[in-house]
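Q: Could you fold this chain for me?
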Amino acid sequence: TLREYEDFRLQFEYRLAQWAEAAVYLRAPRSARPGEAGLAIMLAHDFHGRRDTEFVTGAVRGVLKPAKPLPPSFHEWHSVDVTLGGDLLVVKIDGIEVQNTRLAAHPELRHRLRKGYIGFPDLGHAYALRNLRLEDRGGRTRLIELFDGKTLSGWRLSGGGNWIVRNGAIEASNGHGLLFADGEFQDLELTLLVRTHYHPNGGVRLRSAPGVGGRGFEVQVYSPPEAVYPTGSIYGQVRSRITRDHEGEWILMQIRLEGARCLVRIDGETVAETGQLPESAMPAGQIALQMHSEDSSIEYRDIRLRPL
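A: Sure. Below is the predicted structure, expressed as structure tokens.
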């Protein structure tokens, strides 16, 4: 879709080629792995023997089996009816309810995005869609958009580096500085997309303040997974478990901060967490984007915050 949705009803019909695999993405980010941080509902031929897994038609891919397995099918039209309202997901295929779940009650799905794009991926197999209908039902989540996608209004620079807005993203390059967002926050969920070029060192500072050394803490951006503190690390405290170099790709970073606890997810995977943030990181403070390298750049976009 061209824009994001939170609560909605989506109806469509699909037809698969033989052996085909497909999916529909819900509340997905504009990142390289949208189905891992949003919701991916499987649509497949299901020609293999087992149909009681998290990788068959009607499953939330990799997480939840369908309530009722459906028979293998190809070259036939099927109807899909999806309703997302708050944390309730209901999916029906050919009138059969295959999902009815509270996302907030599931240990993995409670971390998935509350708002995002709807899409259909190319998985290398042919499939057809028709009769797509989408009813936007608004949303209940209080989200604060920190970046308008066009200007640096609401941001203040401390230090150096080149900071510009290009193609809907904040681009930082060649220098050492922090770009602070207006406002102070304490407990929050922060989501943003990040892309690096030429292996820069940067990050996101939380509960921080301009000119106050040691205030707050940093979640690292540094793409080599072999680094001492690679992307997603809670710098100086917990090393990220990320295993791939994301250089040149848009990745989704999610940070959940409550009291002394911090959890970091990259593209839908928890890579670092702690319940022992230092006292210097406890008071409310500002959020800042960091650039800490020469001859390289970092892009930040889709920066939003949900107070807790």
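A (continued): The two ends are 29 Å apart (CA to CA).
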